[in-house]
């Protein structure tokens, strides 16, 4: 990790917020000033604002035990002006197109108000400037007032409202603020309290009555078991009857609960969080526990709908090829082997989960995810052959030509003259303007067991080797 001293030296005036998973965050002095944290700011009940010997905040925020402090700090940050939001969104969509993405499902806009904070993406859609198809879920916004939000949303929109580029997908991945587990594997597993069941059941019952699809964040089998008990009780009164719903994450789900999910018509959306947090998981729960976290092969055998994703952009990289490599190799980005061969996916299986599998979760499996008649004209020509490239090189795959709706939205290499122009990056201080775009660092493993970290846009030949066996990079 970079040090706070290095961040302050690199950006003495521009606020910088670096999020490390959902475990911690680093803020430079300008960011501390922007969010208003001083020696008089107390740490909240569910987090720590680290302070030095003189009582001044250092810039390190710790999620103890969950990410409430990290979310709250992001909410205090300065907001870009409307025109800059339009600009930065277009550039970010192009970055996703660079990786070959043509469509995403947004699990929920944490701390985003509906419909106010959706005006930018709506405006780009109306102007025919979206280069990515987006199905979005509405996230809980007012703790204790979730039912009020739901009833208001029922009047404003409905699932499927929009067009083939931007459409509302349902509710989630948080339903009520209190009924929620978290995935900070540096902290003990949270206990699900039955005290919040009444409000949660009321919310789910209302959602099912209105036939809105929903998704629920649930990391641990203990949480999933608790929620399934409630769902089955609701189903006896208000049948789910084909309603599309699913769990997000489900790292430790048991075979029995996979069967229960399938019986209720649900699915499981998995993400590559353990590619980044696998070492933390093993340290807390042991090597044996991680071997089936998640139990990929059992999900395939049982036949429950499964979609694969990244959990981007806050908790993990948005690079889909990192996620695919994790499914195939069973290794973390640091090189730790998590899964035995019997709990890994073939390249074809992983790709199916990522494409047609994920299309089920937005109810679009009839028109997305395959190159076939009557499917949308979305495709990517890749830089390398995914099926034969060395496993360790899969994360470096990108697109050389991406089409959405039959239109070119990104082009590189021999197709570069076809790349559609974008407006200049704004605001002027944006690092994207300086370094030529966002890039995923390349990690190359040496024969000695050490790693090289290659930052392509920070000196193409600037290599630093870390101590063999250490998964922490200093650059």
Automatic annotation (TrEMBL):
**Which InterPro entries does this entry report, sorted A to Z?**
Amidohydro_3, Metal-dep_hydrolase_composite, Metal_Hydrolase
Coiled coil regions in record: none
In this protein, which residues make up the domain named Amidohydrolase? 2-410
Q: What is this protein called?
A: Amidohydrolase
